[in-house]
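About this split. The held-out portion is used to measure sequence recovery: a designer receives only the structure tokens and must propose an amino acid at every position. Recovery is the fraction of positions where the proposal matches the reference. Here is one held-out target exactly as it appears in the evaluation file.
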């Protein structure tokens, strides 16, 4: 949700912090702030409402000619409001009562009201509505010259999730960081150490990183890090090498990250498939499934959990597991999983689908499934993320950093990986060699199929131009195209603010059709599939009520000519076709949002990774 960066070193911290915040801005962007520590220990904080550029302007103006310009230590934060509106007083950093220490915080302190009431009774006058200020003041209450100790004592009284970075006037050159349920990664440089909530903020400075574990508290200086675990035992954590290319977190000439990420999909899906297709045996080789062929063969049911776009990817996967692997598969919204007391056991495979690997609801589902004894695998993009580490096994989608808040290449990567898994499980069951080879061959074509959709960018932009003023749109699909319809509608509403709904095509006549008025755009996923004629009848029903039908059809397909507009995707296996169809809908949403002048990469009210329930 929010983004944290901290720096302890010998260079001026402010430009490093602001650069890091720009890379983290996709995580939250309603306000931002930083605190700098001079070599004397003095703390200076600057906050601004709105995007990081507003903070940058303020920092530049306020620091000009002051010694703080060269301050070599600092912490910074970009916020997605949870407690209190996006105002300057609510922006981080927050200070202790005596203003001798300050912190930035990701996550939620669940018992902050009780802490706040206790502190107010002692005379604290809070200046914000945030949960974070309660934590800052609580640490201040415990502080007696040892910041690490004070942080540990305060956190022992806290319920909830946190990733924090704290600095104090009395300990110049020292930053204390801690995490529980909210990621933090340390970056080890030459004579400098950084901390961030996301490795993307570190790539410009170092490749050597340490992912902190839940419960860790670390004392960070320019030259060393001392990590203690939840039991206060000193720990040597593994130093990992970041595989990120700094260019991957830049726009690279595209107008928006979203457009760049849409166009990266031939490559990102190729990466998801790389080395995993065995054409000869008609199967997939997935080392990350880590489980013996016998164990896989014994799986009786697959439960896919995820949120938002990842939930939709799981819903496509559900069809593939049933169709190719003859497996009973079901999808559950991760937010619901642990509260419905799920019937899950040792012969169930739970797949946690998540781009970020940090989504609180999905993580909670992972933990619950593990307690219930299920085999739990992650389908995750971010290596080193909490879900990746807690599942311990799974299949990475290797989509590279996804910066745009609206997920695109992660979705296609997730679907590609789920299709690979379904092929692998299918071949261990009843899927024939011949069918397996045919499926593997179709999957291998995916980068080329996506490229064919991207080549129609201008035609799709023209369709978008003719629907850009509509205030409502409906997306219809059946079978595996139903979740693609849901995803198309989600994309459109997220970035263009057009009210959009996805429905099972057959459901339209059971109620939603009442919403249609002449000219309402109805996007119908009417590609080649066994259910084509049914889908088309549903489209005709909408057309008869005056809707404007935009049909997504397969190349060479006969039928559907009566549509008002046609977007042609390459002809391929109906499950594989979910990926090129999704790419077409991503482009459609992108162009509608562009024509409506929306903030595409950072839509209002959203944040990239949702680490609160
Ligand atoms: O990181 P995750 O895949 O777990 O995130 C899940 C959802 O929050 C995410 O897909 C969200 O719906 C996106 N904004 C969709 O574009």
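Reference sequence for scoring:
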């Amino acid at each position: 949700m929010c983004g944290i960066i901290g720096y302890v070193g010998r260079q001026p911290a402010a430009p490093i912090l602001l650069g890091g915040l720009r890379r983290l801005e996709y995580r939250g962007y309603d306000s931002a702030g930083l605190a700098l520590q001079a070599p004397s220990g003095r703390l200076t904080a600057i906050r601004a409402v709105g995007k990081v550029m507003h903070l940058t302007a303020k920092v530049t103006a306020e620091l000009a000619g002051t010694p703080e310009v060269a301050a070599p230590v600092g912490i910074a934060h970009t916020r997605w409001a949870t407690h209190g509106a996006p105002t300057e007083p609510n922006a981080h950093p927050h200070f202790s009562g005596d203003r001798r220490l300050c912190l930035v915080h990701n996550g939620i302190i669940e018992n902050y009201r009780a802490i706040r009431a206790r502190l107010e009774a002692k005379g604290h006058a809070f200046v914000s509505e945030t949960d974070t200020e309660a934590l800052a003041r609580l640490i201040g209450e415990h502080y007696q010259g040892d910041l690490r100790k004070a942080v540990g004592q305060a956190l022992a009284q806290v319920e909830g999730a946190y990733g924090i970075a704290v600095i104090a006037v009395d300990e110049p050159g020292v930053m204390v960081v801690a995490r529980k349920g909210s990621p933090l990664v340390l970056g080890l440089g030459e004579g400098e150490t950084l901390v961030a909530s996301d490795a993307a903020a570190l790539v410009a400075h170092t490749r050597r990183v340490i992912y902190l574990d839940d419960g860790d508290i670390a004392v960070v200086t320019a030259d060393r890090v001392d990590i203690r675990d939840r039991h206060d035992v000193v720990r040597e954590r593994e130093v990992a090498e970041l595989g990120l290319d700094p260019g991957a977190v830049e726009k690279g000439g595209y107008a928006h990250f979203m457009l760049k990420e849409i166009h990266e999909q031939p490559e990102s899906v190729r990466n998801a498939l790389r080395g995993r297709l065995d054409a000869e045996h008609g199967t997939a080789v997935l080392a990350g499934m880590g489980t013996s062929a016998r164990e896989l063969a014994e799986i009786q049911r697959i439960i896919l959990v995820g949120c938002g776009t990842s939930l939709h990817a799981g819903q496509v996967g559900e069809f593939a597991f049933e169709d190719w692997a003859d497996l009973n598969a079901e999808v559950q919204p991760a937010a619901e999983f642990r509260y419905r007391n799920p019937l899950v056991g040792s012969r169930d495979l739970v797949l946690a689908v998540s781009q970020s690997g940090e989504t609180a609801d999905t993580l909670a589902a992972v933990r619950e499934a593990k307690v219930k004894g299920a085999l739990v695998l992650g389908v995750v993009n971010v290596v080193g993320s909490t879900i990746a580490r807690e599942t311990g096994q799974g299949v990475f989608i290797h989509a590279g950093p996804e910066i745009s808040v609206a997920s695109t290449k992660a979705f296609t990567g997730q679907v590609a990986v789920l299709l690979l898994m379904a092929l692998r499980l299918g071949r261990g069951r009843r899927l024939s060699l011949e069918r397996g080879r045919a499926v593997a061959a179709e999957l291998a074509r995916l980068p080329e199929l996506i490229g064919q959709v991207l080549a129609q960018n201008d035609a799709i932009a023209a369709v978008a131009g003719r629907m850009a003023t509509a205030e409502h749109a409906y997306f219809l699909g059946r079978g595996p195209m139903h979740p693609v319809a849901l995803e198309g509608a989600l994309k459109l509403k997220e970035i263009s603010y057009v009210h959009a709904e996805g429905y099972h095509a057959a459901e339209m006549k059971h109620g939603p059709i009442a919403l249609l008025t002449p000219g309402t755009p109805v996007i119908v996923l009417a590609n080649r599939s066994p259910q084509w004629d049914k889908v088309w009848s549903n489209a005709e029903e909408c057309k008869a009520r005056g809707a404007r039908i935009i049909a997504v059809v397969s190349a060479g397909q006969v039928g559907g000519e009566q549509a008002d507009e046609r977007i042609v995707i390459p002809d391929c296996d109906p499950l594989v076709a979910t990926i090129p169809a999704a790419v077409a809908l991503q482009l459609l949403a992108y162009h509608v949002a562009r024509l409506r002048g929306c903030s595409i990469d950072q839509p209002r009210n959203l944040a990239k990774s949702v680490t609160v329930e």
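Annotator remark: The domain at 453-613 is CATH 3.40.50.10490 (Rossmann fold).
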